[in-house]
Please model this.
Amino acid sequence: MAEQDDIPQRARQHVERIGAADLVIGLLAGSKDGEIGAAVANVREALARISSSVRSVVIYTDPALEPAAAEHSPVEEDANLHLLSYPADPAATPALTTQSTDGPYRAVFAAGEKLGARACGVIASSLDNLTSNWIYWLIQPVLQLDFDMVTPCYAHRTFEGLLNSSIISPLTRALYGQRIRNPMGPDFGFSGRLLHRYLGTAGGARAASRLHPLTWFTTEAICGGFQICQAHVGIRSHPPTDWVNLSSVLAQILDPLFVDVQHNAAFWQRTRGSQSLPTFGASVSVPEEAGAVDVRHLIESFQLGCRSLQEVWGVVLPPKTILELSRLARLPADRFRMPDELWVRIIYDFALGHRLRTISRDHLLRAMTPLYLAWVASFAVEIESAGAAAAEQRLEQLCVAYETGKPYFLSRWRWPDRFNP
Amino acid sequence: MWVQIEQALNQSMIRVLNELASLLPGMAALILAVLVSTLVAWILAFLLRLLLRGLQFDERLARRGAAPSLIEWLPQNSPTLLVTRVVFWAVILVGFLIGIAAFDATVMSKPTIQVFGYLRNVAAAALVLLVGSFVARFLARSVLIGAVNLNLQYARLLSAGVKWMVLVLVLAMALDHLAIGGNIVHLAFGILFGGIVLALALAVGLGSKELVSRSLEREASKKPIDAEERLRHL
Model:
């Protein structure tokens, strides 16, 4: 059940005064001047396309807001739309690669549960690119088509969202059997039923295991048999990753992902194949940037890793894989190709190594950085001038390789000592 | 004369046997104390685990924002398990100490006391070596992975340097515990460490100033900024 503790003290009184609502929308990204006004206008526009009688509450976090002023709202409310501001907790930001906390999401869920909401939309992306379409497609399938979860499809360039394209999405697809483009959102639409599950024992156990909420929202919905769909929401902007911190980014994202894989082992071991999901909205194409991607440094990083980290990789990777990596390191840049089967086996072996805790998990995941850069370089060399459609096709090929490699993962997972090619 | 020798041998044998016999009740008390404390520890840990699970201790701690880095080190990421294990081993330790106290120091001869006293040092030195070698390997691996990810060509050298510095420090500490070498170890260790630090300082400050700055500039310029501007990982 929803815990009162999850809703900030002042906001709790406001929630009690509102009483009930059909829809709760949480805007989790810190808002700048004027952004909340624009976001609320978008919410009104989206709601007008659905029905005029949907009672809604928009919850937003305001970094500048003192807890005592939590009831102040910069936008005019009406009978069907209330505004609720939470003082932002600087330690609890929901974006990827930050401290693992489910606080902001739980606060919105708890308000939704308390108000008896049928649907809940959570937008954690920056509000810069937020449109009424974005909000509409996140909540309409839940409110009108009885879906339990809407996951986002973002429009992006070929070389954006690489971590999702290379690991998160294909791994989720192969293991859980659902072709979800962005399993880790971070923007979602949820049904009241799903909120109840998240706030119940399942959510409590996940919170206790320190999993980042973005890693388990989708898998919990899949394992619970909830109806999931996708929606094209638009272009999501994300600041470039700091090159020096790439290994930290990898560790912060892959650690909870692999913990979740371990948590759901009983489910995914029974799952075979994959199925596509109903997808709503129209995809938007983003113009590609001109010029070649310089992959020399990526390859050099991989070659250095290959020379120096074999001892660490050897703890989790079988000799055959190490041999293939050594061969790959000798290839010139123009012929640098990492076969999908090799990359898939590496990911599966690292997931297994993470489970077995053969070495410190942080070391293990950080040691993956040169391998990931090798995949990025290989992908960039192969797709360089091929265009967005070809890139899409190439990523689909990778997803199929993940599915084909699943029996290998199953065997290693079940008999890690006996099955070691 | 043979009679006197025989008497002397008999007396010494009787003395040793008497000393051993006087140790037996203490031994039995030690074993009993450890067995009873293990049983008590198991019951206490079991009850505590039930209580903490009932109170949803892990969930509450997680919501209160316990440091994730700390929790990563806990057994199976569970604070409940950590608390129960601490209680379990603490009770056993108390039982062991009670058992040890059952030995009456007065019944032991001086050499026996000295041997027991030195055994404590040997155990401490072994523990220092064990923990030290673990720390050395851990730090060496951290440095190696960090340096490779920063694209430093001399990553292996750095890692080996860290490993051996920690090992030398640990070895000196272990020898100090064993009271072997005395001041020579202190002196040698001081000279060795001081020498390394001085050499590095001179290398960076004087002799290799330009070499080091060129190396750092080269590494800095290696950042694939042009590639990274187009490559977005998230």
